[in-house]
Amino acid sequence: MMECIYRNDTDRMVIVKCIGTDHFYIEKVVMPTEMFWFEAPRDARLEIWKMSISGQMLHVRADVSDYAREDEPVAETLWAS
To answer: Chain centroid to CA 14: how far?
Structure first.
């Protein structure tokens, strides 16, 4: 699993779907300027759906690695020592 972050830089809410092997699935509504922090398998795909008048429209399809955190893991930054 890898830690990932998606930030909604649009002025509309989006739906983020992360799909991986072995029935891995996360779906989250992300509001404008909100950040979504999640863990996903390295081979997972990320879909970002924008809302339109006619419903949801696929906006981005990418590898989850494109949204991977580049700094140290959460376990080392959030826990008090």
So the answer is: 11
